[in-house]
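Subject: sequence -> structure tokens, single chain

Hey, anyone have a minute? Need the predicted structure for the following. Not urgent.
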Amino acid sequence: MVKWGVIGAGGIASRRTIPEGIIPANNAQLVAVMDVRKEVVEELACKFGVKGYFSEEELLKDKEVEAVYIATPAFLHATQSIKALQAGKHVLVEKPISLDAEEAEKMIEEAKKRNLKLGVGFMMRFHSHHQKFREMVEQGELGTPVMGRAQLSCWYPPIEGAWRQIPEKGGGGSLIDMGNHCIDLLEFIFNTRVKELICFAETVIHNYPVEDSAIMVAKFENGALGIVDSLFSIPDHGSKNRLELYGTKGSILAEGTIGQLPTGDAIAYLSKEVGGYDAQQDRSVVQGRVIEVIPHNTYQAEIEAFSKAIIEDEAPPISGEDGLWSQRVMLAAYESARMGKKVILE
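Reply:
Had a minute. Here:
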């Protein structure tokens, strides 16, 4: 049983990761929470019967804490992660791992030096459907991957003090907050990495200094193409958060699997590799097959997988190196948007 402390216990931690992830996990135990807001600490400490702290230094001195989940604004990730590692704690930090590649490299080196685990919170990889899609691709059911599209959008108007709307604190807007998840998912499902990309990141609707609308087009190392659209400028009811995977044997089309819930639906339109050209282009030849999975909570799966890595002394399922690569993709995307040209990753 791994004993957990949480730094940045409000926000996503109090809404999802604590109640849905740490509390029900079969190999984890919440022992302490920390936040700069007194009311958050008092509420959670009372609700879950754990210790409450108002600074990371206090929590990190707690010898009972073995692993720390960090869910603070992105600009604090590197500093707080390194402090936690130096205090002898394993670290699971929310994405993005940091705001620049050099910080991420320092985090990785610190973890290696101290023989501690460093993981990054791309919890959508643990969704039952996404796990199944990766398996189907690996087994050749989709044929040769041709193209993937991932969409994650919401309505996020100007909010005073919201760190995701401040470039220095969040590193960007809709692209780094939501598009980050989407391109990571396509890489995960296709089991490949981005080779080159072009990106448009614009502030179309809202009056804040980060982008509210972004589109990225990528080419993967395996030759497939990818499209990511992530927007803060569409009402929630208008975006269905679609995931589309296409290959030489057909397609896998999902709706609602991208997001914070373990729900969603998916249909596969798959057949054997097609032969010659069909001028009729009859789309009724292949009937759709509902892809059925046993849903599980992505936050619980994330915490259990990281705890297992600690207990069994194995590599985290989503490592610091994975987080570093993801941040390099994001930085390349923003460079592309600024320069108006394609960027090649190495």
